[in-house]
């Protein structure tokens, strides 16, 4: 009888140890998934006339969780690698204009064509970024005049 109880104690201790390990592993997974949120929304605070290749600096930050958007330069810097979504809406009253969402200064992620007659244009893209990748918006032709700053928005967030 005592041998049987000792065998059960070994089994129970083994199961308890396994449950402790499982709990530790689940806590580690939960901690790794509960990183600080990364999300931003920025808009223009004033009308902007842009030159070819000029970065659109969305200087009024409405949300900046994780502090990854830099409203001085109009750049988003990915703090961690992951899957991100970016959205861009512009309202142009200059010449018909083309804008691009750019990664690291040269890779075009998305384009946006904006007519000159106060018709808003939008683009949404999902991209895989590496830590420290930089994403921003630039004008690609002369005469872009972004009016109605409330309707000129740039936003993004970490999906996973």
Give the structure's gist in a few sentences.
It comes from Magallana gigas (Pacific oyster). With 160 residues, this protein is an alpha+beta fold. The protein has one helix and twelve strands.
Key phrases:
rod-shaped; 5-stranded antiparallel beta sheet; 12 strands; 1 helix; 2 domains; Jelly Rolls; 160 residues; alpha+beta
Number of helices: 1
Elements, N to C (H/E): HEEEEEEEEEEEE
Principal-axes shape call: rod-shaped
Strands of the widest sheet, in order across it, are 3-1-12-6-9
CATH topology type of the largest domain: Jelly Rolls
Q: In CATH's first tier, which class of the largest domain applies?
A: Mainly Beta
Helicity level: 10-25%
Q: Using the 3D structure, state the CATH architecture of the largest domain.
A: Sandwich
Q: How would you classify the helix and strand content by structural class?
A: alpha+beta
Oligomer: single chain
Organism: Magallana gigas
InterPro entries: C1q_dom, Cerebellin_Synaptic_Org, Tumour_necrosis_fac-like_dom
Keywords: Secreted, Signal
Subcellular location: Secreted
